[in-house]
C-alpha cells in the first residue's frame, strides 16, 4: 500500500524494521524530493520541517524514507514515540479499537477506555492524594484547560510562567511561551493576565535553587501579588527552552510558596512525562507533588491525546459541561494510550531511559571535555542536551548548533535543536533504540562537530 511508487516495496514498521543507519542518496533523495516539492505547493509555509525526507516506515530506533535511507532516530518525533514507532501492542490496540468504533464523543455517550486512561493517570502521576483526570487532544489544549480549572477553583485570574518556558501554540499558550521567534512573532495580541518571571538556569545564572526561587517569588509578590494569582505553571525540565534542569531546591521552594498562598501549582509534563527522564514523571526527580499535571506527547505513542490530572477538589471545580471537546479522549487514542502505558510499566522503560541517559551523558561529556564549544551537557534519563557556545565569550553559538544538526542529518542521524538562543541540540531517542544504534548516532554527532572548523 503506497502512494509513492508502486515499484518499491515498503517493509512494515515497528521493531522488525532493519535496525541500521544507511544513507543511499543525498537527502532528500528523488522520491522524497518529489513529495517535498508537492508539500511546498500544497502545505502552508508556516508548517516547516527540519529533516528533508518523506517517511514510509519507522520503528525500534530508525526512520525509513521513500528512497530507502534508514535514519537513526534521536528525536522520537519530539519525545512522542517513546515506546517505539509502530510498537506491536499499540498497533494492535489501535486496529482492534478502530474495528469496534472510532468515535461517539465521550460527552455524549462514554466508554470504558477513557475511564481506564484516567485511572492510570491518577495512579501514575506524583502524589497519593485523591486525583481526577480530563482528556484532550494536544499538549496546548491540556495547558489551556489546566489554567481554566485553576481559575475556576481559585476565583483568581493571573498566571505566572517562566523565562524559557514553552507551553504551546494556541493563543493562551503562546502568551505563556517565552520565545518570540518562531512561536509568537506577528501572532498577537496574546491572552491577558499572564506574567513571566525568571526561573533557574544554573549554567547561565549561577544561582542556587533557593536563590533563584527567592528571585522569582519576590517578583511575584511585588509585581503581581499572590491575592490575584490563580496558578504558577512550569516544565520541571524546560524542553523547547533548552532542556534546562533547574538547580536543586528551586522547584520545591516554588511549590511551597504556592501552597502557602493558595496558588495552584501546575507541572507541564507534556515533554518530560512517561519515563522520558528516567522517572515516570520528572516531578519525582525533584521530589515535588504538583496540584495539576499536564501530559501529552509520550502518552499514546503518536495518537493525539493529552490529559490534565490533579487534586480531585481542584479538578472538580469546573461545572458539568464546562470542560470537554468533540474529540477529547477519542477511543482509538485511548486504546493506544492503554497499550503504551502498559509498555512503560511492564517493559522496563523507566530503567531503559536511565541506561540511555548514561550512554548519552558519558559520550557527550567526553566530547565536551575535548571541545570547549560544548559549554554544558545536561538532562535526566533519555532527555539530554548539549549547549553550544563561543569558547572565548560563553555566548550562545546558534550557527554552530545548526551546522552540527545539519551535518548529522546528512549522515543519517535525526537530531533536534532547541533553546531560547537556538544553541542546544537535544537528544530524545525512542526508548526502543538499541545501544549500538545509539552509539553510532553519537559517533556521527562527534564527527559532525569535529568536522566544523573552530574559528
Ligand atoms: C510540546 C509541548 C506542549 C504543546 O503540546 P502540543 O501537543 O504540541 O500542543 C506544551 N508543553 C510542553 C512542555 C511541550 O513540550
Short account of what is shown:
It catalyses: 4-aminobutanoate + 2-oxoglutarate = succinate semialdehyde + L-glutamate; (S)-3-amino-2-methylpropanoate + 2-oxoglutarate = 2-methyl-3-oxopropanoate + L-glutamate. Helices cover 37% and strands 16% of the residues. The chain has 455 residues and is α/β, with parallel strands linked by helices.
Return Rg in Å.
Answer: 22 Å
The amount of beta strand, in percent, is: 15-25%
Count every beta strand, where a strand is a DSSP E run of 2 or more residues.
Answer: 15
Q: What's the CATH class label of the largest domain?
A: Alpha Beta
Q: Give the neighbour order of strands across the main sheet.
A: 4-10-9-8-7-5-6
Structural class by sheet pairing and helices: alpha/beta
CATH topology heading of the largest domain: Aspartate Aminotransferase, domain 2
Parts with pLDDT < 50 across at least 5 consecutive residues = none
Using the 3D structure, state the CATH architecture of the largest domain. Answer: 3-Layer(aba) Sandwich
Textual characterization of the structure:
Belongs to the class-III pyridoxal-phosphate-dependent aminotransferase family. Its cofactor is pyridoxal 5'-phosphate. With 455 residues, the protein is of the alpha/beta class. It has two domains: 14-86 and 349-450, Aspartate Aminotransferase, domain 1 (Alpha-Beta Complex); 89-346, Aspartate Aminotransferase, domain 2, CATH 3.40.640. Helices cover 37% and strands 16% of the residues. The protein has helices at 30-42, 76-79, 88-100, 112-124, 139-154, 171-176, 202-205, 209-224, 250-260, 312-315, 331-346, 349-370, 398-410, 435-450; strands at residues 55-59, 62-65, 70-73, 131-136, 158-162, 194-197, 229-234, 264-268, 292-295, 306-311, 374-380, 383-388, 413-414, 416-418, 424-427. A seven-stranded mixed beta sheet has the order 4-10-9-8-7-5-6, with helices on both faces. A hairpin with a 2-residue loop joins strand 11 and strand 12 (383-388). Helix 4 (112-124) runs parallel beside helix 11 (331-346). Pyridoxal-5'-phosphate (PLP) binds at residues 138-140, 143, 166-168, 235, 239-240, 268, 270-271, 296-297.
